[in-house]
Amino acid sequence: MPPPTVPHDVPPPDMPDMPVVRGRTTAVAVCLVLGLGLIAGAVAGSCLADGPGERSAAEATYERGATLWQDIPVAQLFPPTVRSDAAGPGGAPREWVRVGVAPAADCTEAFDPVLAAALAPVGCKRLLRATYTDVTSSSVTTVGLLVTEADTAGMRALRKRFADERLDERPDLMPRPYAPHGTVADRFGLAQRVTWRVDVLTDVPAVVYAVTGFADGRTGVPPQPAAQAVAPGATTVAGQAGLGHEATALAEEVERVFREAAREGRKGASR
Description:
By secondary structure, the protein is α+β, with helices and mostly antiparallel strands.
């Protein structure tokens, strides 16, 4: 016999009563609210951090460094007198007197061809230079600050190349001197260069360099990078005469002043 059919109007059987777990429901609701709040907070925080006008201190310093050359006073970047208590060989005190400041210029014919080619990737916004002599007028040093057009990635790439290829040690990449006419540096030409230093900075868009020679115009002195000339026990002419110390100290002073001014955002009289 076929099974009896179920009438359509028969209601389904009652489901057994299920206990309500109020504690668990409340906990789930609280977790959901907290989770949504954390997500919303994270999104809002990200929007605030990435919002327009928000810059890190490093970014602000770098940006100020790109335009600082227009505002920093000459006497601040290139002081009339520079003193150091321990800049000479063996930690001896040193003092230098500024003999001339070149007009702010572009980089046309400012560097020997090989150095110009090495610096070309970062561009040249402005070149600032000054020349100093020691208090005995026996040495002369040109210190320069090249403000580049590159971003931080470009400056890091240039710094890496200089380090990897040791470009700052090559005599064919020596910077050119600035020889103010009628001063003790009048005879400071290409043939009088003895030692040099080139620093590629990455916290500001700048390359700082210094090149040193004898004030008497002597030639034929074997050139030597300042980093080698300042090494303890150096017996070269540049090392014995302390010329490497001169280039190093004056370059470091310009770096310090420029970096400090960029960090603090100081504004001075227009150049």
